[in-house]
Amino acid sequence: MPPDKALNPMETLNLLDLFQGIATLMAAEPKIMIGRIFLMLLGFLLIYLGSRNVLEPLLMIPMGLGMSSINAGVMFLEGGKMGTLFVDPLMSDPTDLVNIMQVNWLQPIYTLTFSNGLIACLVFMGIGVLLDVGYVMARPFQSMFIALFAELGTIAVFPIAVALGLTMQEAASVATIGGADGPMVLFTSLILAKHLFVPITVVGYLYLGLTYGGYPYLIKWLIPKELRGINMSSDRGPVITRSQKLIFAVVACTLLCLLFPVAAPLFFSLFVGVAVRESGLENLTTLIGETFLYGATFFLGLTLGVLCEASTLLDPTVLKLLLLGMLALLISALGGILGGYIMYFATGRKYNPMIGIAGVSCVPTTAKVVQKIATDANPSAIILPQALGANVSGVITTAIIAGVYVALLR
Known about the structure:
This protein has 410 residues and is mainly alpha-helical. The protein is 70% helix and 1% strand.
């Protein structure tokens, strides 16, 4: 008898072995399969909205593409386990981590810049270069008053989250979403709720993108057109010199680091950017304000996108985080508008109440949003200096509140 012919691999090839993304989709539990398809479509939507400038394109386009790719690119790994070649956020064993950094292409970026908060500090450094603290120094009372009202969500959501069953550390982490400061959300959740920092950060950045498109509607519902068009160009304030701004940056940084050492890396990153700007170091300003900021924001969006695996986000706790994050940003916006109305009446109806929402420290998005709406209501209206003052103050107050949470609950 002739020996058996060796089996031809091509004859035994199953198409699903070739197209493993489809195979894993069919082999997954129904809720995981539906979740993956939903997140792929959500990624498409984020890319579209980013490309149309409805949401922040620098963050949303890489985030949307990462979200679609991670949920499409699931394959069978050793032992029949499903996974990807992007990143494993749960890997903690040092030996396994070193090995997987040779395989997963985003693992080095995640491990060396994301999970230790470095990327948040780089973004904060870039934000510092963009900030003109002169707007705060020219109107310190107005700016800080508005910023404190715009932190209402950061404070109010904490007891609500605890009542819904979250620990105090988890509640504080999700409450910081109300400050609309992405790096601060990442930093706080990394310290207080490391097991939830991936979904909290993803939820935070998704909603920060939505503030760009959602807040204008809230403003138009709550503030009449004649008030939205109040012109404040006559309120120029005193001239603040570069030397004064540099002194402010040095003193504020040192004082805040002294009071809240746990948040010192973020305070330092923010104010070193301000110091570089006010020292006239043009080459460093370009490096930090363009290369660092845009590069860090791009990889932040990309990494957040690939962390949006269906298996990670379908945890029941994530639904609470989604609702609480939305609530925090809504309450902060309402608090800011309330502060704006108080200033409107306190100044004899000369203050544009819309500036209140600029205290929600999504720098400089909320300031640009209120200026655009003011221009639509009154083409000669200028409120950007006051809005930026509230905006910059919001960054500082959010960092202070996050520092308080971390100091008390760590």
